[in-house]
UniProtKB/TrEMBL annotation:
The keyword rRNA-binding does not apply. It comes from the Bacteria. The keyword Signal does not apply. Its main location: membrane. One of its GO terms (cellular component) is plasma membrane. It is found in: Cell membrane. It is a multi-pass membrane protein. GO terms for biological process: lipopolysaccharide biosynthetic process; protein O-linked glycosylation; response to iron(III) ion. GO terms for molecular function: mannosyltransferase activity; pentosyltransferase activity. Keywords: Cell membrane, Glycosyltransferase, Membrane, Transferase, Transmembrane, Transmembrane helix. Signal peptide: none annotated. This is Glycosyltransferase family 39 protein. The lineage of its organism: Bacteria, Pseudomonadati, Bacteroidota, Flavobacteriia, Flavobacteriales.
């Protein structure tokens, strides 16, 4: 017990590192966002241009650079590979969970802090985000840190917390842009309104001009430099196309109804999101006597509403609120522990969790059966049985009035499910991806070119940019001069495919996983 009390923070952090980095090097970088971010970092490292991001030699205006820098550090430590690209995403996941635990212990109590830490550590799709070489793990941490720092300043009036608040916002702006400023800028005033403290004195007490200056000093120089280096092209592409357009109009087919964002939150925090309604209700009832829970309620509600209004909707968008939604869920579970009795709503939620657990392996089996190239691998869906097994155990212990054992059974079951997903299921499935098939079929030191379109995972896995040809005549001339070259394409145009097959020899054809295009590889 004394050991836990002395080293509890370290234990939570190391447990977070273990779970958030589990098996990150066992399967290749394959999905589009990961591939483009990891490759942009690789090209920065290769060219020494740390100002302007590029993907396959073309300017990439999607995101600011901070996550690229951490990936480059990962490449320096571990090599240019999936582990190096993903490592610091996992570290920032662990930091997010540690930060949540520390502030809960500081402002509430150690028991509630531990419950919330377990809620987050067992949240499969939340943990999965920290397995990806994308900017979101960094943004999630910086927004989480900024909001907790604001609350710590609100309670203690220690100016050091104010510096952390604005510094974290600035680093968030360097990670994913203005959203790191917009969310705290909405949440803080609304919280103060709820507390009847929204007045000029309170606002000036937050030193907003100092904050603006600090944000400009930290984040401003890179934005100025990238604007100058690209004659404004990066600035226009990022702020207009990737910010205003994403909020105001559906981007890349990622739209949907208002309800989609709350559903993403429920999915992202499974298994314990089955108590999300009870969590919000319990927090609302406690809002007057517990301003920390009120603050968590405001963060959760504002973030979910904001991204529900946004025209573009993606599962990762509301994730900066997950620590705070987890606090609401944990607060409800904590109250049930204190009462030591069962509630009808908790029983219903556990039954719902059991239904979800049963659907998961069945859905996985059916999905892999439908995806013809994965039918042989469908047996891996049996590892999803950890979900219903943990739900059954949890329900049994709950029924026998062992609430804490029920909670830990569910949490540990879903952590084992995560280990199975990252350590077994993903490696098996991605072995059938086009990039894996090409890497196992064609010598990786061979010359490659692309025709019109190609799978974004090839540059990072081949560790080089690919010359892209847009017409068959230019391609023919290049192949005549370099006859050992391999041609990669995933064009959907039948006329292009016919033109290629009229001139070149098809050596490999592989459908993308769960997508409607396929990669073809040709030689002379």
């Amino acid at each position: 017990m004394k050991f836990w009390q002395k080293y509890d923070g370290w234990i939570i952090f190391l447990l977070g590192v273990l779970i958030c980095t589990s098996f990150i090097g066992l399967y290749p970088i394959y999905i589009l966002d990961e591939a483009r971010n990891a490759e942009a970092a690789r090209e920065m490292l290769e060219t020494g241009n740390f100002i302007v991001p590029f993907f396959n030699g073309q300017i990439r205006t999607d995101k600011p650079p901070l996550h690229y820098y951490f990936m480059i550090f990962g490449y320096k430590l571990f090599g240019v590979n999936a582990f190096g690209a993903r490592f610091f995403s996992g570290v920032f996941g662990a930091l997010t969970i540690f930060t949540t635990y520390w502030h809960l212990k500081e402002h509430q109590n150690r028991t509630l802090a531990l419950i919330v830490a377990m809620v987050l550590l067992s949240a499969l799709f939340f943990v999965q985000e920290f397995h990806l070489a994308v900017p979101d793990p960094y943004l999630i941490f910086f927004i989480t840190l900024s909001l907790f720092s604001f609350y710590s300043y609100y309670r203690t009036k220690q100016r050091s917390w104010l510096l952390v608040f604005y510094g974290a916002i600035a680093l968030g702006v360097l990670t994913k842009g203005p959203i790191a400023l917009v969310l705290p800028g909405l949440i803080v005033p609304i919280f103060l309104i709820f507390r009847n403290e929204f007045n000029i004195g309170t606002i000036l007490g937050l030193r907003p001009f100092l904050g603006i200056l600090l944000i400009l000093l930290i984040a401003g120089p890179w934005y100025v430099l990238v604007h100058q280096h690209t004659n404004g092209e990066w600035t226009r592409g990022f702020f207009i196309d990737h910010n205003l357009s994403r909020f105001g109009s559906e981007k890349e087919g990622h739209g949907g109804l208002f309800i989609l964002t709350p559903l993403y939150v429920i999915l992202g925090l499974l298994p314990f999101s089955v108590f999300i309604v009870q969590g919000f209700v319990a927090a609302w009832k406690a809002r007057k006597e517990n301003d920390f829970i009120l603050f968590s309620f405001v963060v959760s509600a504002i973030t979910i509403i904001f991204f529900s209004i946004s025209s573009t909707k993606l599962p990762n968008y509301p994730m900066p609120s997950y620590s705070f939604v987890g606090i609401l869920i944990g607060f409800y579970i904590y109250k049930m522990f204190l009462l030591g009795k069962k509630a009808k709503s908790m029983t219903v939620s556990l039954i719902f969790l059991l239904v979800i657990g049963i659907v998961l392996p069945i859905g996985g089996w059916i999905g892999l059966t439908i995806e013809k190239q994965l039918t042989v691998q469908r047996h891996v869906s049996l590892f999803l049985l950890f979900a219903p097994a943990s739900a059954i155990l949890g329900f049994y212990f709950y029924h026998t009035d062992r609430l804490k054992t029920a909670f830990m059974s569910i949490a540990c079951g879903w952590i084992l499910l995560a280990f199975s997903l990252f350590g077994i299921i993903y490696p098996v499935l991605t072995s059938q991806s086009p990039v894996s098939m090409v890497m196992n079929t064609v010598p990786t030191d061979a010359q490659f070119v692309a025709f019109k379109r190609f799978d974004s995972a090839f540059p990072i896995n081949l560790e080089r940019t690919l010359p892209v040809f847009d017409n068959i005549q230019e391609l023919q001339r290049h192949i005549q001069a370099h006859p050992e070259t391999y041609i990669i394409t995933n064009t959907r145009e039948q006329k292009d495919i016919e033109a290629l097959e009229g001139v070149f020899h098809l050596i490999l054809r592989q459908k993308a996983l769960f997508e409607n295009h396929e990669t073809r590889v040709y030689t002379k």
